[in-house]
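Predict the holo structure. Ligand: tryptophanyl-5'AMP.
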Amino acid sequence: MDGKKVILSGIQPSGILTIGNYLGAIRNWGAMQDEYDCLFMLADLHTLTVKQDPACLRANTYELTALYLACGLDPVKSVLFLQSHVSAHTELTWILNTVSYPGELSRMTQFKDKSLKHADNINMGLMDYPVLMAADILLYQADVVPIGADQKQHLELTRDLAIRFNNRYSETFKVPEAYIGKVGAKIYSLQEPDKKMSKSDENVNAFISMDDDTDTIMRKFKRAVTDSGSEIRRAEDKPGITNLINIYSLFANKTPEETEKEFDGVSYAEFKMRTGEAVAAVIEPIRAEKNRLLKDKGYIDQLLAQGAEKAEYLANKTLRKVYKKVGLLPRVRI
Ligand code: TYM
């Protein structure tokens, strides 16, 4: 780390990503690599808070690492690593647990949503999930955390925990800021545009996966729900067309205003087709590169090993400081 501001972010390897994850997260990260010291993590421990098939989790972890690389995350410029490879994450979680309250954790929107969705498996990990996320961030003294809007509440909790710990034990953690993109922060379902686009949606037409081929992408956009009316213009009461305008703009590198101008007088059907084409033009080469990288798992293992080493060094520095502050005796080496 060479004195630049530090960025940390992560994604759970819990299935193939949607363009929501891409636009809300990875796409922004690539552009930050020159300006910041970046750590990009795969939050594999977080996935265990809902039931995972072990073989699928392993496969998804390789998939997501390959996708990080295919989207332009550079293992030379940035640190790419698995959360489970750096034991300081779970160790700091324990310490932060002692300054976290069940009341604040049970109030988290995502905990409430996931408890409804996984009513047969409301485990302690699900409730403790934001504390692990706080540990991920605070271990690296991150200045900025780029996330989609759905993670904002977890970042606020991270800030609260950092401040609480600092007040109790003296200045230890940097208090991080969220970075939430203006347009891509929340991409909505193509079928129910008042709901977040999610890879766990039962209706596959509701999301575009980063693994969808061009035909599938075109078909899904063709079926995308639009609103009454015919103008390509954003409006609060027109969530369907607003979402499509945002998606098109991000993939075509335009502002929403430019998009509205470009499609003035064009039909919904034509606009949906053009949106599908713009999305496919970006996703197709990423998918091809990801699949090429996946053929060499040895290479991915090597990169992750190097990333873990760099991350571990930084994380342990903070963890040692924390252990000392709370009064744990340092281990004497013999
Ligand atoms: P996860 O894996 O659910 O999502 C990864 C990132 O994608 C963003 N995102 C979206 N953005 C826009 N529109 C959508 N429809 C959409 N869906 C998802 C999320 O906001 C997120 O930025 N707890 C985190 C992972 C994590 C983490 C961290 C993130 C673990 N530790 C430390 C930052 C820092 C999660 O489950 O994200």
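The mean pLDDT is 95. The two ends are 30 Å apart (CA to CA).
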